[in-house]
Write a structure and sequence with these properties.
Order of helices and strands: EEEHEHEEH
Radius of gyration: 14 Å
Largest sheet: 4 strands, mixed
Shape: globular
Strand order of the largest sheet: 4-1-5-6
Low-confidence stretches: none
Number of helices: 3
Distance between the termini: 34 Å
Number of strands: 6
Length: about 100
């Protein structure tokens, strides 16, 4: 078992299906912005940036093939969230990040 929470985020992605145009994950970029704005809150996090295409081996190893959505926050004691509202709330509750305004 890991001793800290692990946050999985996607890299940008040059999609061959769209002429090699580069894309980013909007939800992951939102979390990247929160991390950049409040860098003093991420001390208890391991941040892992994974390639966009599936299978996402590191995410699969942590929480299973059926749970490859990112961002994903895997809790040190077990369990995870992998939707943007859940990740942002867990970052607030578990790591002291501010929460988004309702």
């Amino acid at each position: 078992m890991v001793s800290v929470d692990t946050l999985f985020l996607l890299h940008d992605y040059a999609d061959p299906a769209h002429g090699g145009e580069t894309f980013y994950c909007e939800a992951c970029m939102t979390v990247e912005g929160v991390l950049a704005t409040y860098p003093y809150c991420d001390a208890g996090l391991e941040i892992v940036r994974v390639p966009w295409p599936r299978p996402r081996a590191a995410v699969v190893a942590a929480i299973g093939e059926e749970n490859q959505n990112c961002p994903a926050l895997v809790f040190a004691e077990g369990g995870f969230v992998n939707d943007l509202p859940g990740v942002l709330e867990a970052l607030h509750v578990r790591h002291g990040f501010p929460r988004p305004h309702p």
